[in-house]
Amino acid sequence: MPIAPAYGILTVKSPEGRFSKLLYLYETHLHTAPVSRCAEATPREQAKAYKERGYAGIIVTDHFLNGNTGCPKGLSWADAMTFFCSGYEAAKAEGDKLGLDVFFGLEYAVRGTEFLLYGLTPEFLFNHPGMDTLSAAQISALTRSAGGYVAQAHPYRSAWWIERPYPVDPGLIDGIETFNAGNFDPEINALAHEFAELNRLPAQSGTDSHFAEQPFTGGVALRERAGDIFDIINAIKTGRVELITP
Ligand SMILES: [Zn+2]
Ligand SMILES: [Zn+2]
After folding, report:
1. What is the pLDDT of residues 35-61, one digit of tens each?
2. What's the gap in Å between 74 CA and the centre of ligand 2?
3. Residue-wise over 58-76: b if at least 16 C-beta within 10 A, else e?
4. Total domains in the fold of the chain
5. What's the whole-model pTM score?
């Protein structure tokens, strides 16, 4: 069965008004159950839902062992990583069937401050036992040394588990979420946008999807289909993306 090309129609606001553009839509921030304890959607449900809504791809960013993980306690590092990667693997298998590109990422927490890490591989995680206990500076250096990308997720969000609800030293990050659909107070996104502008940090948008039936309000749109996750990273870094927002 031929697979329809993946694309989305994005309505863009310009000084002349609104117009529609054919763009490739990518979700940058997405969770699956049971790897993320707070997620309700299974990897298959997420892949199906995004395909139905015209996204070209998704980056699976489940909570790592230092976040809201569903990983059972007491596993060996290898078993914990097998569990952690199972959400991505299942989403990828479903995506391959449907014609949705599924990329690997993770959401890494340092005392509640969270980072989206892209460009690492499951093999890298297996080969770095104990990498769940690093400081922000250490995980940033480790990710970058492997050629990966570090973005701060939802800066300024406050919750009891977030010790410091502020942006980190901009030198530690390659990008920052200026729109997160889970920020119910629009002021949080506005502050993040201001911080990105002030520090000339690449901006990205993400749904932080935990539920398949969640309205699809975040992500980035590219003019060309991404061949791999580095095409998305480079597009964000060079500002060649439209941010998907409601
Ligand atoms: Zn979560
Ligand atoms: Zn998240």
Report:
1. 999 999 999 999 999 999 899 999 999
2. 24
3. bbbbbbbbbbbbbbeeeee
4. 1
5. 0.92
